[in-house]
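Intended use. Records such as the UPF0346 protein MAQA_05053 entry shown here are meant for training and evaluating sequence-to-structure methods. They are not intended to support clinical decisions.
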Amino acid sequence: MGRTFYHFLMTYRDPEKRDPKTAFANAAYKDHSFPKQAKSYHVLSDYLELNAPYLNGMTLFDELYDEYLLSEEKNR
C-alpha cells in the first residue's frame, strides 16, 4: 500500500539540524491540520499553499515530493 507523504517527511525530523528539509518536517509535525493521510500531490500542494506559513515557497515541497515518489517506487 505504501506510506503517506507525511510519514516520508517525518524521516527528516531532527531537533538539532537546521537545514530546510528538517525545518519543514519539524514544522509539519507541529501542524495538527496537516493532511497526514494524503499521498496526492494536488491535495498536499493545495493545503501547503493555503495553510503553511512555515514553508517559504513550493520548491522545497516539490523536491521532497519527487524524493517521496522515488522512495515509493523503490519499495514496490
